Each structure stands twice: as structure tokens, then as C-alpha cells.
Amino acid sequence: MAMFPQFRSGIFMGGSRIRFKELEEFMQYVHTPEYRLELKKLKAVIK
């Protein structure tokens, strides 16, 4: 979760700020090829 600091704080610090539906959609998105492509781009930028 280091890639999403704002997402993390949304869950743990302001639990009511993030709705379960949004979390569910995010979890589904994490397993899509599009997400993996974005992650590769991010990693390339970080290096």
C-alpha cells in the first residue's frame, strides 16, 4: 500500500471517509491488467 498513501490514510485514519463500495471497486481494479501496466509505469518513473 506504499504506492497509495492517501488511500491508506482514508482507510485507517478516517475510516468513514472511504465507503466499502469504493474499497471493493479498488480491490477489483488491483487485479486488472490495466493496474499492472500503471504499476510498471510508476516503478519505471521511481527508478
Summarize the structure.
The protein is mostly helical and 47 residues long.
Q: Your description of this structure?
A:
It is built from three helices and no strands. The chain is mainly alpha-helical. It has one domain (5-46).
What is the overall silhouette?
elongated
The proportion of strand residues reads under 5%
Poorly predicted sequence stretches spanning 5 or more consecutive residues = none
**What is the terminal separation in angstroms?**
18 Å
Helix content: over 70%
Helix/sheet category: mainly alpha
Number of strands: 0
Give the overall average pLDDT: 69
Number of domains: 1
Order of helices and strands: HHH
Largest sheet: none
Q: How big is the Rg?
A: 12 Å
Which labels suit this protein?
47 residues, mainly alpha, 3 helices, elongated
Chain-wise SSE layout:
Elements: H1 5-12, H2 20-30, H3 33-46
